[in-house]
Amino acid sequence: MKKVAIVSAMDEETEYIHQYITDRPGWNKTEENTYTNDEKQLQLFVKVLGVGKVNAAFQTADVVNQYHPDLLVNIGVSGGLAQNVKRGTVAIGKSYVQTDFKPFIKENLPVIKDTSEWIVSGLEKAAQEKNYDYLTGKLATGDFFLHDENERASIIKDFNPISFDMETAAIAQVATAKDTEFAAIRIFSDLANEDATIIAKHEIDTEEEKEIRHKLNTKPTELLVSFLEAI
Fold first, then answer.
1. Buried (b) or exposed (e) across 175-195, using 16+ Cβ within 10 A?
2. How confident is the model at residue 143 (pLDDT cuts 50, 70, 90)?
3. pLDDT value for 212
4. Mapping DSSP to helix (H, G, I), strand (E, B) and coil, where does residue 97 land?
5. How many CB atoms lie within 10 A of CB 21?
């Protein structure tokens, strides 16, 4: 049975999984945050890590050590950095970079493997079948909320990523160190610009924005489950 660990920074990013899996034929809840599909020979374990690279790294290490997944998948929201994108576009990770880790000696840069091509192509196929607006590319990570236009432009110039968030590359680094297959599916909740702070404040203050965020967070779950069931 293939074991898959699904991790996120916040509860809102994985809460839909529990509803979606419970209502889906063939799936059964076997333990807290654990689901199995005997026909597909799949077992899913869901874990919220916390926000930021430190939480992401040490919690991911715990997940790998305790659960021993065959595949580790990070899902959640992010800021879009690619040209002509919009809220709701799905970002499928292929490579990963930490934008705020800048050692003096080049050899001290973290080793982060790309996601395996079979995983990337499988996720792309699932996105196409669901008619999702998606991009595949490099996902950037830093321990800060990106909203400054100048900093945004600098990150695009230096790293050419399609999105930015606060955890993915740290999770990918631990997966690499633990020799565990890794994938990431992020959805653009904002465009990592000046409007991002307005959107974030509205998410806290208004029910309308909370509902928008909930709808956004359904896509990574549905995309991932479709991919896993097709393996």
1. bbbbebbbbbbbbbbbbbbee
2. very high
3. 83
4. strand
5. 20
The model's pLDDT over 53-83, given as tens digits with 9 standing for 90+, comes to 999 999 999 999 999 999 999 999 999 999 8
Bridge partners of 190, per DSSP, are 79
The model's pTM: 0.94
Alpha-carbon distance of 10 to 189, in angstroms, equals 14
Query: Nearest 5 degrees, angle CA 129-CA 140-CA 84?
Result: 55
Show the DSSP H helices in 96-206 as ranges.
117-129, 149-159, 168-177, 194-205
Residue 117 CB coordination number (10 Å) = 9
Burial class of residue 39 in the structure, from the number of CB atoms within 10 Å of its CB (0-12 exposed, 13-18 middle, 19+ buried): exposed
**Collapsing DSSP states into helix, strand and coil, what is residue 129?**
helix
204 confidence band (pLDDT: 50, 70, 90): low
59, two tokens: 């919690």
CB 11 within 8 A of CB 216: no
pLDDT at 21 over 80: yes
Domains present along the chain, CATH in parentheses: 2-230 (3.40.50.1580)
Q: Judging by DSSP bridges, how do beta strands 134-141 and 163-165 pair with one another?
A: parallel
Q: Would you say residue 206 has pLDDT above 90?
A: no
Q: Residue 181 is inside which H or E element, if any? A: strand 181-190
